[in-house]
Design a protein that fits this description.
alpha+beta; five-stranded antiparallel beta sheet; two-stranded parallel ribbon; 10 helices; extended
C-alpha cells in the first residue's frame, strides 16, 4: 500500500481473500486512529459486515502482543538454526557494514531533487537496482532469479525479434535446452554465492579496521561535552567543548548521567570525552619558545 487512501480498497480485498480461501469472517479490526480508518465509508462498511472496530491508544499503537511473540520465536529459531548472531548497533547511530546504505543510494539518487515523491519513484529505483551489475555476486539480481538477461522496457515494443530467436517448436529440443539452462542457473548461483562470501569477508575486514574504540565511562570520571551550537555557528573564539562535568552513572545503551551546577541531566556517550586534568594548556601553564618544557 503506497498511499493511505488505499486502505479501504486493500481491506476489502483482504476480507474477500479471507472469506474465500479460509471460509472465515473477520470479527474485529484493530487499527490506529488514522483518518483512513475513521472515514465514514470505512466505518459504514464495518458496521454492515458486523466487524467491531477497535482503536489503539494515541502514540502507543500496541496490539495484544501475539504477533510479536510469534515473530520473536520464529526469529530466535532461525538464528539458532543458521548460527546467526544478532548484534545491536550503538544508540542514535545505527551503523552496520554499509551494504544497506549502498542499496538505498539508488533511491536517493532517483529522488534527489524532490524527496516527497519517493513512493512514485520506488518502482523505477527497484528496477535499476535489480538490473544493475553487482560486484559482490558478479552479476545482477534479475539474472540470478530468472536465469536470463533482462529486457529493457523499450524492447517490449519491438519484442518480435528477440522472441523469435528464443522460440522452439520442437518440444524435446525445448525441454533439453530448458534443462541445460537450469543447470547453468544453478552454477551461476553457486558462483555468485562464493563471490558474495568473499566480498563480504573483505568488506567486514575493511569495516572492522576503521571502527572507533568504544568510549567507556565510569562513575566519578570528569568529562567534556561537545557544544552542539558550535556545529551551526563555528568560530575561532568559540568553545567546541564545555565542562568539565562529573559522570554519575553510565548505561550499557550508550547514554550517561552527568552532574552540573544546575543538577543532573542525561547525554549521549558520543557527545562527551574524558577530561585530562594534566593538560598544561587547560591548567594555564605557558611555555616560552626559549624554554623547554620539563616533565
Amino acid at each position: 500500500m503506497k498511499h493511505k487512501h488505499e486502505a479501504f480498497k486493500k481491506f476489502k480485498l483482504f476480507q474477500s481473500e479471507v472469506e474465500n480461501q479460509l471460509n472465515k469472517t473477520i470479527k474485529v479490526l484493530r487499527s490506529d486512529r488514522g483518518g483512513e480508518y475513521l472515514s465514514e465509508e470505512f466505518q459504514y462498511h464495518l458496521r454492515n459486515c458486523g466487524i467491531v472496530s477497535q482503536l489503539t491508544p494515541p502514540r502507543t499503537p500496541q496490539n495484544n502482543g501475539v504477533s510479536e511473540r510469534r515473530n520473536r520465536t520464529l526469529l530466535d529459531d532461525s538464528k539458532h538454526s543458521s548460527t546467526v548472531h544478532h548484534r545491536f548497533s550503538t544508540a542514535y547511530h545505527p551503523q552496520a557494514n554499509g551494504q544497506a546504505e549502498n542499496t538505498n543510494r539508488a533511491l536517493e539518487k532517483t529522488v534527489d531533487n524532490n524527496p516527497k515523491i519517493w513512493s512514485q519513484k520506488l518502482e523505477d529505483a527497484l528496477w535499476a537496482y535489480r538490473t544493475a551489475y553487482k560486484t559482490p555476486i558478479g552479476s545482477n539480481p534479475y539474472r540470478m532469479f530468472y536465469g536470463k538477461a533482462c529486457h529493457l522496457p523499450f524492447e517490449f515494443e519491438y519484442k518480435a525479434l528477440w522472441a523469435l530467436k528464443k522460440v522452439h517448436l520442437d518440444d524435446i529440443a525445448s525441454g533439453n535446452e530448458r534443462l541445460i539452462n537450469l543447470h547453468e542457473l544453478e552454477e551461476l548461483r553457486s558462483l555468485a554465492y562464493e563471490n558474495s562470501k568473499i566480498y563480504k569477508e573483505q568488506r567486514k575486514k575493511w569495516h572492522d579496521a576503521h571502527l572507533k574504540e568504544v568510549k567507556v565511562f565510569k562513575e566519578g570520571d570528569k568529562v567534556l561535552m561537545y557544544q552542539t551550537l558550535f556545529k551551526f555557528s563555528p568560530g575561532k573564539l568559540k568553545l567546541r567543548w564545555i565542562g568539565p562535568y562529573v559522570v554519575l552513572k553510565a548505561y550499557p545503551s550508550g547514554y550517561v548521567d552527568l552532574m552540573t551546577e544546575r543538577g543532573e541531566f542525561k547525554v549521549n556517550g558520543h557527545r562527551i570525552k574524558l577530561y585530562n586534568e594534566d593538560d598544561p594548556v587547560r591548567n594555564g601553564v605557558v611555555y616560552h619558545l626559549s624554554e623547554e618544557p620539563t616533565t
